[in-house]
Amino acid sequence: MPRAKKRSGRGGQQGNVQPFSDEDASIETLSHCSSLSERTSAAEEAGETEEMAQEDFQYKLKVYIDSTVDKSAKTRQVALDGLKTAMATKILYEFISERRMTITDSIERCLKKGKGVEQCAAASLACLLCIQLGSGIESEEVFKTLKPVFKTILNDGAANTQARQADVYATMESFESLFTHLYVREDGSRPSVNPQTTQLHTNALLSWALLLTICTGSHIRVIAQKHLSKLPHLLENDDVTMRIAAGETIALLFELIRDVDPEFDYDGWEPLCEKLNALATDCNKHRAKTDKRKQRSVFRDVLKAVEEGDFQSETIRFGTERMVIDSWVRKRTYDAFREFVGSGMNYHLQANEFIRDVFELGPPMLIDSAALKAMKSSRLERHLYNAAAFKARTKARNKFRDKRVDVGEF
């Protein structure tokens, strides 16, 4: 006889079905509680993980600070670079303010006892420290402490050129005495300096230009009278970086003096415009293509600034915000900050209260990830927008593009 098929208790008509008891209800409740507990536990673990990561990060910073007084120059250099990277990419105000004097002492020791590269790193770290601390009394005390050391190195002709070059950003009094060495002498001759010294003078000029942005009107008049007739000679320098720095400084000085005196008249205006136009259309074969391209781009803007008082505005996007660079003053300030924080500039624009205050961006905006995601456009929307922009750009270019027409002989 065939064996009778066994029927499972689940789904079978003859299966025994047990009623839902209080015990089952308690099990179900425990299951929900267990699930909730797991989620809570996961959140707690995530918080603990983040807290541990923060503790590890702060521990590394403490090790770096301690290592800045190590006997090994290589160890000190690694420590300085580590602190620079941390300050350029994160806001560390509370951590730093508690150890401000210790860090300042370490920087001072590295500046005094270190050599070229180490002094350069220490000077850059000093600037980042002031950026982190903001515009209050804390950063002012750091500057007052380090200022004598900076001036000593800057005025020491026997000091390492690389160290002197870095220190110009922290010393705001001796810049003029540096870059004026490149002015044409009374007999018409030009001084000959090596590339490293030229770079030092270039940075001194740019830092001097940064100071101009906060000068009073009367001071700007004096500076314009003293330097505006001599700065154009720097446009003939063999170094492209110096030429560009001189051009941007001239544009900045014209912008500032016109704000103070709208009727300002410069005697050497026409020769200056001719020189700027020559640099904006430079095609000398002995110069590198990259240098010529960069030079022409900058001097087209400089020429517009001198001739028309115009500035080619630029929009900086960071997070959900935008900032417009609409003047030479704003550009010089932005470039100075970007020199130190590098790729972390957008982050500092979002979160650093001091930098936001300088650019009048208001308090930092707090937006959670969900809101940020909702504000982003979809891939299709971006594609349609780019397609429409490309079509409009093509039409605009075709409108002004030269049309080649065959011309017959007469």
UniProtKB/TrEMBL annotation:
Residue stretches making up the Interferon-related developmental regulator N-terminal domain: 29-307
Superkingdom in the source lineage: Eukaryota
Cellular component aspect of the GO annotation: nucleus
Spans annotated as Disordered: 1-51
Pfam family, one: IFRD
SUPFAM superfamilies: ARM repeat
Domain Interferon-related developmental regulator C-terminal intervals: 352-404
Stretches with biased composition (Polar residues): 28-40
InterPro entries referenced in this protein's UniProt entry, alphabetically: ARM-type_fold (IPR016024), IFRD (IPR039777), Interferon-rel_develop_reg_C (IPR006921), Interferon-rel_develop_reg_N (IPR007701)
Family: Belongs to the IFRD family.
PANTHER family: INTERFERON-RELATED DEVELOPMENTAL REGULATOR, INTERFERON-RELATED DEVELOPMENTAL REGULATOR 1
Name recorded for this polypeptide: Interferon-related developmental regulator 1-like
